[in-house]
């Protein structure tokens, strides 16, 4: 009888989602406290570019918080980009 069994991690995606959520929340709290804003939409373009510059040039690629800062940048861009709505 073999003592080797295939390793499994059921519902790993749920753990990863929870960790990403926590990283995003911690990153968001830090950015809001650092810039004294209530919401990321209150950030200026200069501030959001400084965040992205920090994430891309000052952080290790393997830093989990790099993802959090890039998500903040992406959310800010999404909120500040006009969207075209097509009516039926």
SSE topology:
Blueprint: H1 12-35, H2 45-57, H3 64-79
Put simply, the count of helices is 3
Task: Let me know the number of strands.
Answer: 0
Strand content: under 5%
- From the N-terminal CA to the C-terminal CA, the straight-line distance is 65 Å
Instruction: Report the helical percentage.
Output: 55-70%
Instruction: Write down the overall geometry.
Output: extended
Short summary:
With 88 residues, the chain is mostly helical. It has helices spanning 12-35, 45-57, 64-79. It is extended and about 60 Å long.
Features:
single chain, 88 residues, extended, 3 helices, mainly alpha
Description:
The chain is an all-alpha fold and 88 residues long. The chain has one domain (13-79). The chain has three helices and no strands. It has helices at 12-35, 45-57, 64-79. α2 packs antiparallel against α3. 14% of the residues are buried. The model has no long low-confidence stretch (mean pLDDT 93).
């Amino acid at each position: 009888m073999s003592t080797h069994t295939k390793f499994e991690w059921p519902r790993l995606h749920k753990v990863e989602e929870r960790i990403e959520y926590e990283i995003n929340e911690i990153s968001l709290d830090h950015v809001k406290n650092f810039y004294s804003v209530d919401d990321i939409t209150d950030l200026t373009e200069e501030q959001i570019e400084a965040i992205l510059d920090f994430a891309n040039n000052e952080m290790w690629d393997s830093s989990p918080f790099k993802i959090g800062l890039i998500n903040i940048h992406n959310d800010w861009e999404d909120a500040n980009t006009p969207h075209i709505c097509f009516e039926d």
